[in-house]
Predict the structure.
Amino acid sequence: MISSSSLLSLTFFSLCLTQSAVEAQTIGTWSSNLQLHNRQNGNNNGNGQNNGPDTSAFNIVNGRVFTPGLGIILAPQPFTPMGGDFLHIAVDVSADGKLPVPPRNIADPLTQVYNFTLFLTSTAMQKNFTISNITTSTPPFADIMVQESGSTVKHINFEWPQCLAGDGNDQDGTTARGDYNISIHQNYRLNGVDRYTIFNLPISVTNSISQFPGAGQLTTNPAPGPLSANGGRMDCAMIENPMVDFQTQVNSVNNPPGQPMQAVPIETSPRSDGGQVGENGSGNEGVGGQSMTSRQGEISPGQGGEAALGAAVKMTSESLSMAMVVMLGALVVLSTSIIW
Ligand SMILES: *[C@@H]1O[C@H](CO)[C@@H](O)[C@H](O)[C@H]1NC(C)=O
Ligand SMILES: *[C@@H]1O[C@H](CO)[C@@H](O)[C@H](O)[C@H]1NC(C)=O
Ligand SMILES: *[C@@H]1O[C@H](CO)[C@@H](O)[C@H](O)[C@H]1NC(C)=O
Ligand SMILES: *[C@@H]1O[C@H](CO)[C@@H](O)[C@H](O)[C@H]1NC(C)=O
Ligand SMILES: *[C@@H]1O[C@H](CO)[C@@H](O)[C@H](O)[C@H]1NC(C)=O
């Protein structure tokens, strides 16, 4: 058991660790002055001087990149030089296992994901490609929440479009290769408040990308895309969006007061569909047990659901067989919830 005060100091400690790191790629500032910091995005470190972007400014724990939303980026890591057939992105969409994912019901009045959309953007190149924008049922444009059903980690395999094919940097100015952001827009509700955040993960498109992607990639799941009608790379113009001015993006976000999970503990609604079957036994030292019914959904309050399983009945020979029935029932409930 961790006492609440040590938990508090732990949270505070991790806050101190990550505070300076978080804002650099988070568009805008955290929404309350609790942890309000000067944004480093504009190359302003808070003392009015232009010190350049803070390239180490990411909130990474064990290779997992925390964002200002419920998603955690598992791949790629910031500033990775990339190439190959397609861009592979992996995102934990379950708020680190705290939230259910489809096909389970994700609706919760306190905390839930609405959607993720992703773009591959570059101010230097003046490019804004759609990676995923929920317009088709085919990945990666499909809603990533409903793909890979049941998995808390969603994989996006974005086929590099034509103008990114090449090797090294853009030498003769005929390609759009160079530095990009994987820009992740998150709409979600956190502890009863709707939020919208944008997070930029920088990568370099500098490794080799062949003009014609290998057929072998088609066995990849989810299938890389989008592809042109003849199965090749997409014409860049086909997946381009207008550039949105940085300040407009800053004005559009509604960031939470701090990083969900690390700084803002996630609240979810209590559920009543599980836990102890039957009511508590009555009486002392095993004279009870007679009032048990097999009403499902009887939960001992304040115990956090499953924690109450099989805890209430004292074992005597009289109540043992009844308790076994209860525990069997509980086992069924337990294994059902595991399968789910
Ligand atoms: C994402 O969710 C927000 C909030 O519910 C909604 O306004 C928006 O239309 C959704 N976007 C897409 C592409 O579905
Ligand atoms: C990536 O986004 C940051 C802001 O979050 C911006 O400062 C940087 O210039 C962007 N990089 C590119 C290559 O557009
Ligand atoms: C989604 O992206 C594709 C490719 O860029 C584009 O054709 C489509 O219009 C976009 N949908 C929306 C709603 O912006
Ligand atoms: C890219 O396009 C999307 C969709 O139009 C937009 O929401 C986003 O702000 C754009 N990003 C940049 C950096 O222009
Ligand atoms: C059942 O017993 C537990 C303690 O074992 C208690 O916390 C809970 O309140 C009891 N439930 C009811 C309905 O009395």
In short: The chain has three helices and ten strands. The longest strand covers residues 178-190.
